[in-house]
Amino acid sequence: MYGACARAAARSASPHCPPPACPTAWPWTPAPALCTSPIPSSALSGACPPPAAPPPPWSTDLALAPTGFLGANGLKIHNGALWATNLDKGTVLRIPILADGRAGTARVTATGLPGIDDFAFTGHGDQIIAALNTVNQVALIQPDGLHTTVLTAADGLQGPTSIALRGDTVHVMSAAYLTAKDPNLILAHLRG
Fold it and tell me: Which uninterrupted H or E stretch holds 6?
């Protein structure tokens, strides 16, 4: 993270985004930092400017837009693109980062993932493991968009909100927002 983004990330709301400011993620990239827009906006903000000016939208693609609660959510930089989830639409999106740093056109790469929140790339190309918050599931999503449920509430999930991967170990954090009981961390292992 750089400059204004690093300072804004340390606060609960970004002074560089119009109200109601509620940044949800800052994906790390060696290029100029990208910031998320405030909730419930459907735009992703561009390179972080000096504190005196709000960031211009980096992408306002309608695939990012919410349909009720929350649109663009989890963000990652991977293989020359910004990848995002849309919690309301249950989709994974890929937005190419053009040579000049502008956003290309968003492409939906997976659908049918209710309440999709955070995700991680497994190290096998564009294969993703993702937290499905509202249905207490973790899904393994193939590059062609097909997906299978690999963890459920029976495994102890309570509204999984975050995924981290280290080697073949998957760390699934459950915030229990909807159940208000047993927030937890579950460890699982990916099979080759």
Answer: helix 3-9
Cα 171 versus chain centre, distance: 16
Token representation of residue 12: 């609960």
CA distance 20 to 40: 8
The answer to whether the Cα torsion of 143, 145, 150, 152 is positive or negative is positive
121-157: pLDDT as tens digits: 998 999 999 999 889 999 999 999 999 999 999 998 8
> Mind listing the pLDDT tens digit for each residue in 64-104?
888 887 888 888 999 899 999 998 899 999 999 999 888 99
Q: Up-side HSE of residue 72: CA atoms within 13 Å toward CB?
A: 32
Closest CA to 184 of 149, 165, 154, 160: 160
| Dist CA 61 CA 44 (whole Å) | 9
Contacts of 171 (CB under 8 A, 6+ apart): 163, 164, 165, 185, 186, 187
CA–centroid distance for 93 within its chain: 10
The 8-class DSSP code of residue 97 comes to: B
Instruction: Give the three-state DSSP class for 4.
Output: helix
Instruction: State both tokens at 108.
Output: 């939906």
